[in-house]
Specification:
Radius of gyration: 23 Å
Largest sheet: 6 strands, mixed
Number of strands: 20
Strand content: 15-25%
GO molecular function: endopeptidase activity; serine-type peptidase activity
Keywords: Hydrolase, Membrane, Protease, Serine protease, Transmembrane, Transmembrane helix
Shape: globular
Protein name: S41 family peptidase
CATH topology of the largest domain: 2-enoyl-CoA Hydratase, Chain A, domain 1
CATH architecture of the largest domain: Alpha-Beta Complex
GO cellular component, one term: outer membrane-bounded periplasmic space
CATH superfamily of the largest domain: 2-enoyl-CoA Hydratase, Chain A, domain 1
Pfam families: PDZ_6 (PF17820), Peptidase_S41 (PF03572)
Oligomer: single chain
CATH class of the largest domain: Alpha Beta
Length: 419
Amino acid sequence: MKCSMIDFIMAKKEAIKKSSWTIFGVLVTVGLLGGGYYTGFSHGQDRVQYPNYSAEVMESTETLDANFNLFWEAWHTLRSRQIEAADINDQDFVYGAIEGLASSFNDPYTTFFPPVEAAQFEENVKGNFGGIGAEIGIRDGILTVISPLEDSPAQKAGLRAGDLVLKVDGKRSDDMDITTAVGNIRGEIGTSVILNVFRESWLQSRDIEVIRGNIVIPTLATAFFDDGKIIQVKLFSFNENASSGFYKHVKGALETGAKGMILDLRNNPGGYLEVAKDLAGWFLPRGTLVVSERFRSGPDSELYANGNEALVDFPVVVLINGGSASASEILAGALRDQRETPLIGTKSFGKGSVQELVSLSDDSSLKITIAKWVLPKGHILTEGIDPDYSVELSDKDIEEQNDVQLDKALEVLHTLISN
């Protein structure tokens, strides 16, 4: 059954009370995390740390500036009077209270996972399940496609960045938290999921069937224009192969006389922070600030370019859109701040916080925001990056494969080369 525009508007109004984006991440079957720090690929993490300890339960002599008796008063009142209280055990009651503690920060990335959900979270991060190959999240309370992966089941089925997922196999998504939504979307490889999707250019929602698959995430692709004088490098992910792949393709292009580059970061949800730093080192002099990590207290942790500087004076433009997140935003923002590289497309996603995953004593866990990413000129990435040249892709452009954003990038790059 399709949802009308009225249903959509009502859902929007209800969602105003809820927080904005909570990224779940790429629904894939391949391992994404590996080791080290990974930026912005899953559950909204810019960095996920896995401490090698469990939280210790300690006696505290700290005086709380709160009436804790009120908690027990509420506990006993709910226990004795709520109609379904007998169906909830004391431990789940405790978990609910901890979820309330986490939600008091109004931060969609600070969350509590009971043991079963904690195990599911780590499984999701490692990617050991069948998926549709799309980065999804919750925006204003509505399940939303952030970015379908290149050549994924999601892309082949017609999903696009910004699509609103109103139902999953007939179940309303506004009644789901992100964990529930993901649990309903993922499943065995070869099976299908029906997503009821609304797009801004449509009058009503439509059902889209997606066949779950084993997702292979590509690293990059290249294209050439003007008889090889301009190279387009489309980077799909800042994964462990990105640095070597970039080196191989760009080195070859330079050797054959390329005069300019279009760095295409559209629909790139992020990846390893170290890779973003490595790639920045191609375009920025050694020792140039790339990004800062701002904590609750203490000095910022600063990350500097340390690369081969081969493209420091090379004409470059960068393509971004709403699917460009985390590492993509770090690299694009650093190039604009530090060498005035033009950004072309639409506003980036705006994922600029750092999370730490802390294991608790019963195998539950807390995912806690501990820092924010700040670009060299002070822009905090949670706000997203506005392009220097705003160019929208219409439905007609996409259907006719008319990439007006790429056309604008070529136009701007030609000007840079001629100057």
